[in-house]
Amino acid sequence: MEAVVFDLDGTLINSVIQFEKMKQMMITYLEKAGVTPGLLDDGMLNFEITSKATEDLRAKGFGEECIAAVLGGVSEIMNHVELESVDRAAATEGVQEALRDLKAKGLKLGVMTRGCREYAERVLSRLGLREYFDAVVARDDVEKPKPNPEHAFHLLSLLGVSAAEALYVGDHWSDAECAKQAGLRFVFFGRPGQDTQPQGGLSFEAVDDIRDIVKLVNAS
After folding, report:
1. Which of 56, 58, 88, 190 shows a CA-CA span of 20 to 30 A to 209?
2. Residues 201, 183 contacting (CB under 8 angstroms)
């Protein structure tokens, strides 16, 4: 084991991003931009909203430059809502201890997040966590963010390790899907009472205390 990669919101930090507000703003904007009304709903994940909207606009004959401009507007909405939450986010219990112990073992640490770079850098710095990480790859650092494995491959290249040498910790099934496609060992960080049953053939280990990641590394 050479590296441990973490998701950000819901894993390293207790996020207070208003995702419902974000999705409603995105959908309203996309419908005004030409997406079929009613096609999108706030039960979708953000990447599902943008993917479905892109498919709809292409089917209607919108050019790629136009679609790129629309998606740029979506990114601005997401960035705005994320940055509103920076000052209210809190570190996950035990996370600083876990990161300190992992670094003491000589491991490289990375963050892979669908948040924007400014949000990731600001919230990690405010909570005193940024110093532990060798690399942070945010949504706007890659063309295809997770669950697309491109996101993971880019981070692994920055860390200088292979997928076989790394462990990925996340709190969502889209994290597990990204890990599967990238060939990463995945650990599901679930809060007490959260469903940790496998979905769609995804394999994983599960912990409900972030400090248990150190134990898993020790046992590797």
Report:
1. 88
2. no
